[in-house]
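Journal club side-thread
Mid-discussion, someone asked how the predicted structure for our own chain would compare to the paper's figures. Pasting it here so we can look after the session.
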Amino acid sequence: MSRLARYGPALALRWPRVQREMELVERAYGSELGRTIDRIAEWSWRLRIASGRVHGCDAVDELRTSAEYLLGRTGFYNNLHRARMHWAAGLAAFDCILDIGGSSPSDPNGALIELGYSHKPTALHILDRPEDDQFHGRPSYSQSEDRVTEWGTISFHHGLAENVTDIDALGELSFDCVFMGQTIEHIEVDKLPLVLDFVRRHLRPGGRFIFDTPNRHITRLVVGDAMLSSDHTHEYTPVESVELMRNNGFDVVGQLGLVPMPLSASSGEFHWDESETSEPVVDDPTDCFVFAFECVAVESA
């Protein structure tokens, strides 16, 4: 009840009705987006329903106008996923990896391996939210114990990326690679320097910090002033990210773009079908839907 108490007695009195209407919202997320509702969207819906601004039966119509629905139904996200798999397959081999935000809802090997990373590390550490609070819903397998495979050990750690310094088991380790696949945009902007400081300090000499993230230069053409997901705190441009890395002790040693969209960039209007014909991965990230960086700590450059 602690979260509920923050919104006052009025919301508490309406709670039974809100609960009934939230069942409709949750079903809509399953039928229209094919996933469970994320925590930020859930609380937004609860507050809006309690205030009388929307009803649970409005969820289907509202979700069908969302970027997630439109990008998914046009096949765009399938093309983006294939581009990300192409990118992941070409990453270098690393023996010890920390994947921040790397839980998979269905693959116990984690999101990086599921994405098609072609090398198998001896140690793969995955940090994500607690099992009952993950973005895609509770995983279909237990993350309570290490998973020993024929190629290495997978260890799960639970907590917010923003609080990575509080996870004692990770504080004792160093890594050949820290990976963030579509994660950095979820981290609170004011806490990101703390996360980047942790990454820099825990990279082994010559280690790599690798991430990909949506390109705000293009996503704004889809959602305007909003963001692609209610769980995003900030969407970056490549230029902005270079500066961010430099200000936090990294050199960017590699840049790639995933799903080039030059027509959309030049016209100022998003063209859904560009992903059908474009190269999946290119060297210049400027006009791409997603960009990927490879970085080294300044003292390792």
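Post-session note: The longest helix spans residues 15-33.
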